[in-house]
Design goal:
By secondary structure, the protein is mainly α. The protein contains 4 helices and no strands. The mean pLDDT is about 85.
Length: about 70
């Protein structure tokens, strides 16, 4: 299994989306509703297209650092 197949597999998308939902729950617990909403949106993207979800998560992390 190559790296390209790893990013496009359904299991990778599912694992990535579950991870982001957990991260969104933690952000919501901290009171950061905007980041929680962004992470939930990224989780939906990651479930459908894991590569797009990974890019969205990187952008969300950059947003968090720049605030």
């Amino acid at each position: 299994m190559g790296l390209a197949n790893l990013f496009t597999s359904k299991q990778a998308g599912l694992a990535s989306s579950i991870s982001m939902v957990v991260e969104a729950g933690l952000a919501l617990y901290r009171g950061d509703t905007k980041v929680a909403a962004l992470l939930l949106g990224a989780a939906v993207l990651a479930y459908r297209w894991s590569f797009v979800g990974a890019i969205a998560e990187i952008l969300i992390r950059a947003y968090q650092r720049l605030r």
